[in-house]
Amino acid sequence: MGPHPAVAAIRLAVRRVLHDLLTEHHRAPAAVPHASPHEPPSSRPRSSRDVPPSPPLVLVACSGGADSMALASALAFEAPKLGIRAGGVTVDHGLQTGSDLRAAEVVQRLRELGLDPVDSVAVTVGRAGGPEAAARDARYCALDTAAERHGATAVLLGHTRDDQAETVLLGLARGSGIRSLSGMAAVSGAGGRYRRPFLELDRQTARKACMVQSLPVWDDPHNADPAYTRSRLRHEGLPALEKALGKGVVEALARTAQLSRDDADALDSWAGQAEPTVRDAAGFLECAKLYALPPAVRRRILRRAAIAAGAPAGSLFARHIEEVDRLITGWRGQGAINLPGKVVARRQGGRLVIRQG
């Protein structure tokens, strides 16, 4: 008799990601020291084709919640069968009393699953962008540091299809454009460091997998706190949508994310190819050539130019780009547009100049 369907589902999702990582790992060339021509052949280092790559290390980011505990259990089960080392890291945000004790408990549970190395990293959460964004920034910074310290090939994250649906709705509410509707990517981060195996699984499957394996889980009280936007959406917004529209809203939103991502990737590629053709010999953007482009492509070029000039990507919203776009499509002699990061955009002699003010 095989494992419970929920357990089988989470293991299959993790197995697929690990196979991808193993394929990428074996394709990467191994570093080989330079051999002196005076050394005898027997003492010279073998070529990269002769040296088997060392087993990769994959970490799981675990808060102790059902999603990440299910992910940790699946990684601990699947990794040894593929010759992959598996470890874990938990981040103590310090936002709740006893958070350090909670982190220590998570470390113990990960070690009991057989993961090694296991780290607990304490962070200080700032205020920039609001509490949720600040906690997220601190968390990813800690995960990046842990991955680099251990030389990990990848970090697995436990985001589910439900998380994806919430992300799409939040992007829709902000009016941030198709990239926000793309939700979370299955592969993201520098060099594809972050992998999300559960984006096609619902939250209930992960919880069920923990239950049938008798894995203790911790329900973060912040996830039920109406002070947080995502919490209100989870407990009020999505249930209201399902009541009004029927079941299947979460699945439909997740499909929207994938379709939007495909479109956004295509438009980003188009913009990257078009940008050199709309710059003059001095590197300035030519307004007439920009005007001839489709709006979706033109605005991507403008956004890239603003970020290159020093505007923080996280603070650069659609309304900023729309104002810059009017310098091209609705030119009436208006003045400069102030952007985040003290970047200024102005039209001068048929050219668009975007630079630090």
From TrEMBL:
Listed SUPFAM superfamilies: Adenine nucleotide alpha hydrolases-like, MesJ substrate recognition domain-like
Protein name, per record: tRNA(Ile)-lysidine synthase
EC top class named in words: ligase
Keyword Nucleus: no
Domain notes: The N-terminal region contains the highly conserved SGGXDS motif, predicted to be a P-loop motif involved in ATP binding.
Gene label: tilS
Compartmental location: Cytoplasm
Family label: Belongs to the tRNA(Ile)-lysidine synthase family.
E.C. no: 6.3.4.19
HAMAP family the UniProt entry points to: tRNA_Ile_lys_synt (MF_01161)
Domain tRNA(Ile)-lysidine synthase substrate-binding: residue ranges: 285-352
Entry function: Ligates lysine onto the cytidine present at position 34 of the AUA codon-specific tRNA(Ile) that contains the anticodon CAU, in an ATP-dependent manner. Cytidine is converted to lysidine, thus changing the amino acid specificity of the tRNA from methionine to isoleucine.
Catalysed conversion reaction: cytidine(34) in tRNA(Ile2) + L-lysine + ATP = lysidine(34) in tRNA(Ile2) + AMP + diphosphate + H(+)
Region named Disordered: 27-55
UniProt KW keywords: ATP-binding, Cytoplasm, Ligase, Nucleotide-binding, tRNA processing
Organism lineage: Bacteria, Bacillati, Actinomycetota, Actinomycetes, Kitasatosporales
Domain tRNA(Ile)-lysidine/2-thiocytidine synthase N-terminal: 58-236
GO MF annotations, alphabetized: tRNA(Ile)-lysidine synthase activity
Domain of life: Bacteria
